[in-house]
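Sharing in case it's useful to others searching the archive later.

Someone asked me privately for the predicted structure of DUF2089 domain-containing protein, so I'm posting the question and my answer publicly. Question first, with the sequence:
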Amino acid sequence: MSKAPTYRAPSDCPVCGDELITTRLGCRNCGSELAGEFGHCDFCALDERETELLRVFLASRGNLREVEKHLGVSYPTARARFTELLMKLGLGSDANTVPTMTREQVLSEVATGALDPAEAAVLLANLD
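And my answer, the predicted structure tokens:
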């Protein structure tokens, strides 16, 4: 039996923006279905980049220097990305946990391609 392609389920309602819940599960093999309200998976809401960061972090046993090397970014960028991941998973305590970089460091990271413009915009907004 060939495996069907896997798609990421959306986590937010495209109509109102509220959190979606899982209400039906099915078996590809026998066609059985189970209906009900099932618990939310925090990790299922991560995008590919965030999942890769988490995999690299776990594979490196929590060593951010190894994450930095694997992703080809600076240590402050690796740390900032990991802090953003923690915040998304509800594990960050507050905005004070976001590491600070100088404006020059952020712009330098963008210039080398180690930091994308969207991340830079968030970091620069936190500097103000």
